[in-house]
DNA sequence: CTTGCTTATGGTGTCGACAATTTTAGCCGA
DNA sequence: TCGGCTAAAATTGTCGACACCATAAGCAAG
């Protein structure tokens, strides 16, 4: 049912030393990997047994997942893996537009030259992946998110960075799993990334914000049209 | 699907029927009222005794408070009431600028005429309070927040509304308690509210966003100068 | 064969208890 | 008198247990 890999390679682990923290990480990974399908019930005793733990830390991990929007909770009915609707997906992208726009603006005036360099390297590296797979989503799993995560952290605003990295990106991945995101925007998205990086490198916060907001709004529009005509 | 109907009158209570939910509400109120001072330790056994409950629901409530930023947590050391630094206050306002700007934009195209009317009535009602106390903070406790809360809900975006109402506004109140916010901006703030309301009434989302962002940036700047020269 | 009630099963919400760790109190020595 | 070491007390993290609720199975009546 649940395979517990300790690697933490994927990215967003907060891994405190406690048992509840490890459970939280493992459950997060299981949800994002699809091992726990959307809508599936999360039985506290079952999870506890499968991890050889008690219900207390399992409960704690699940409540945190609820707070992060990855599971839904009904009183006396327990938790289920969230099944974000298309409307929720779109709503999430609206908030994301606002927050990442601000992140880009702040990153433009806050990122060190070395951070900008790694960002540029990241985008340059993505180019090869695009060439190999021009129709690919580009935002399928992580290369896209890495770019955005880097900017979020580069904003120098810990509240903003945590909100984006710990709350929004996992939730978005769950949404993408459910609503097949539009394919084929890869090349354009990459160009937009390039321009955003340039604006940040020139410390032009205003432009970086505008470009980032456009970037996300374009993705949102593509999703909306994809949803309208299946 | 996210339902946002709350029977609670006062404001930010999520009051589920459970005991943990009531504890969460009471602790939130105690923190925001100052009954529990910033930095004070939150002893699980003590709180449990004082409420005649067990530690389990208390723990759950405290973990939720941590998730909302009202409490800091250290492993094996328990929880303390958060003591947001001035930097955190400013960071919070940056994120708020982005999110409330988006909220105003969405509210302009989403609010019903009746909702706009109640918003206008709210602002009109505030005028009297300003006249009675022109130097007053205007954002001291709730009249200010009510206005913003109404717009957040009026955005029609449940994710945005919940983030603002349940996470940001309580946290901001805690920040204001710690760092004496600037006094005397009441009249200008009120005028800004008026103009924002007008823009929303005319369904001018773009303008509403600009005005809202200016409004919050002005408050942030006032705070910054107040912090610089005591 | 279907419909409604009754019962059984499983799960959640809460409780008290225990080991491990942290904090406090007390003591000794300088 | 003060600083550091030791022991005691309190607190946290986790566990197993029990009542209440919800859903699923079984049964009776039509």
From TrEMBL, chains A, B:
<dbReference type="InterPro" id="IPR011711">
    <property type="entry name" value="GntR_C"/>
</dbReference>
<keyword id="KW-0238">DNA-binding</keyword>
<dbReference type="InterPro" id="IPR000524">
    <property type="entry name" value="Tscrpt_reg_HTH_GntR"/>
</dbReference>
<protein>
    <submittedName>
        <fullName>DNA-binding GntR family transcriptional regulator</fullName>
    </submittedName>
</protein>
<feature type="domain" description="HTH gntR-type">
    <location>
        <begin position="17"/>
        <end position="84"/>
    </location>
</feature>
<keyword id="KW-0804">Transcription</keyword>
<dbReference type="GO" id="GO:0003677">
    <property type="term" value="F:DNA binding"/>
</dbReference>
<dbReference type="Pfam" id="PF07729">
    <property type="entry name" value="FCD"/>
</dbReference>
<keyword id="KW-0805">Transcription regulation</keyword>
<dbReference type="Pfam" id="PF00392">
    <property type="entry name" value="GntR"/>
</dbReference>
<dbReference type="InterPro" id="IPR008920">
    <property type="entry name" value="TF_FadR/GntR_C"/>
</dbReference>
<dbReference type="InterPro" id="IPR036388">
    <property type="entry name" value="WH-like_DNA-bd_sf"/>
</dbReference>
<dbReference type="InterPro" id="IPR036390">
    <property type="entry name" value="WH_DNA-bd_sf"/>
</dbReference>
């Amino acid at each position: 049912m649940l395979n517990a890999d300790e690697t933490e390679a994927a990215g967003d682990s907060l891994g405190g030393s406690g048992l509840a923290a490890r459970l939280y990480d493992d459950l997060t990974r299981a949800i994002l990997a699809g091992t726990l399908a959307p809508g599936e019930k999360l039985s506290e005793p079952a999870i506890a047994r499968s991890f050889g733990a008690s219900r207390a830390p399992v409960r704690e991990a699940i409540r945190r997942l609820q707070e992060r929007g990855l599971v839904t909770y009904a009183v006396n009915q327990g938790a289920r893996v969230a099944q974000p609707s298309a409307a929720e997906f779109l709503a999430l992208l609206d908030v994301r537009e606002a927050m990442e726009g601000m992140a880009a603006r702040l990153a433009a005036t806050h990122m060190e030259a070395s951070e900008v360099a790694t960002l540029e390297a990241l985008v340059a590296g993505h180019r090869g992946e695009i060439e190999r797979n021009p129709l690919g989503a580009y935002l399928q799993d992580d290369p896209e998110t890495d770019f955005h995560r880097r900017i979020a952290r580069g904003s120098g605003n810990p509240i903003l960075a945590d909100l984006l990295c710990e709350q929004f990106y996992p939730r978005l991945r769950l949404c993408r799993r459910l609503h097949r995101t539009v394919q084929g925007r890869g090349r354009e998205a990459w160009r937009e990334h390039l321009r955003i990086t340039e604006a940040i490198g020139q410390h032009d916060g205003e432009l970086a914000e505008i470009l980032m907001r456009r970037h996300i709004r374009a993705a949102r529009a593509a999703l909306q049209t994809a949803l309208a005509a299946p």
